[in-house]
Specification:
Length: about 300
């Protein structure tokens, strides 16, 4: 069994991007600038945004963090996004989800200029991704593909079972894995909460991508010998032995499943760091006016 080490691959991608920043500076060009919007004080969102901002600093990008009270009106938030759209110094905009219930996420995402939508959630960019056109690929699915590519995980002709059909993970991953590309060329089964025979399907899977949001949901009896396991889940479970009072676990029962599989991503240290690396790649592409197509 080989661990798909997201920290290691993400560090390699960050080092490449840092070199590109050095080149841009040497040419007298502006460095990429990411604007992140955080509404409210959701602890997980705070952590994600902080590590995105920190990663920007590590590789020489500029970043701007706009924080708003959770009672902010939708109009005020939209006005701020419009200002970022119009600000030529800002290359990429991300709005950390979820947003408070009184704000319509769809309206917010639709307000971001598609050419600055480095999360790849705008319908224009989703449409381009589905059509196989160069665009911003949503960061988590993009990070998963970069990880499979880095480790030369065989995907061609394989059966991939994706568990979870969210717009940010499951659905885009299913599209990318089925593409005529490398990684890709999988036969994909996209499963969800109404799939009656999940265990049976998982037992047929050469590759399982788990994006459900339920701790240890994928157990060893659901996994075929030699399968590849990509665990997207990030779940906080109580742990009195930790100073914080919790620890992070994935959607996969890691210890038992790891014994059976050929490759597996740990949590933490797997898909999470890759998501940030992919976001930074998208931001670079936005800054230099190229749309990445998984490269
Ligand atoms: P979501 O809640 O939007 O979607 C969950 C999906 O799981 C739904 O499509 C639902 O149909 C499916 N599901 C629920 N119960 C099921 C069942 N019994 N059988 C089969 N499918 C079932 O979640 P999301 O936003 O895609 O996130 C999933 C997990 O991934 C969460 O733990 C989240 O924190 C994590 N996540 C991690 C990263 C990262 O960078 N590592 C990024 C995004 C999300």
């Amino acid at each position: 069994m080989q661990i798909l080490d997201g920290k290691l691959v993400s560090a390699a991608i960050k080092a490449q991007l840092a070199d590109k920043v050095t080149e841009l500076k040497a040419l007298g060009q502006k460095v990429p600038h990411l604007a992140a919007i955080l509404v409210g004080n959701n602890p997980a969102s705070e952590t994600y945004v902080a590590s995105k901002v920190k990663s920007c600093a590590e590789i020489g990008y500029h970043s701007t963090l706009l924080r708003f009270d959770e009672k902010i009106s939708e109009k005020h938030l939209l006005d701020n996004i419009t200002l970022l759209n119009e600000n030529a110094d800002i290359d990429g905009i991300l709005v950390q989800l979820p947003l408070p219930k009184h704000i319509n996420e769809e309206v917010v995402i639709n307000t971001i200029d598609p050419s600055k939508d480095v999360d790849g959630f705008h319908p224009v960019n989703v449409g381009k991704m589905v059509s196989g056109l160069p665009t911003f690929i949503p960061a988590t699915p993009y990070g998963i593909m970069l990880m499979l590519e880095h480790y030369n995980v065989p995907t061609k002709g394989k059966h991939a079972v994706v568990i979870g059909r969210s717009h940010i993970v499951g659905t885009p991953v299913s599209i990318l894995l089925s593409r005529n590309s490398n990684p890709g060329n999988c036969t994909v089964t996209l499963t969800h909460s109404h799939t009656p025979n999940l265990k049976e399907l998982c037992l047929q899977a050469d590759i399982i991508v788990a994006a459900i949001g339920r701790p240890n949901f994928v157990t060893a009896d659901m996994v075929k010998e030699g399968a590849v396991i990509v665990d997207v889940g990030i779940n906080r479970i109580e742990d009195a032995s930790k100073k914080s009072g919790f620890r992070l676990v994935g959607d996969v029962d890691y210890n038992a499943v790891a014994e059976k599989c050929s490759f597996i991503t740990p949590v933490p240290g797997g898909v999470g760091p890759m998501t940030i690396a992919a976001l930074l790649k998208n931001t670079y592409h936005a800054a230099v006016g190229q749309k990445g197509n998984m490269n």
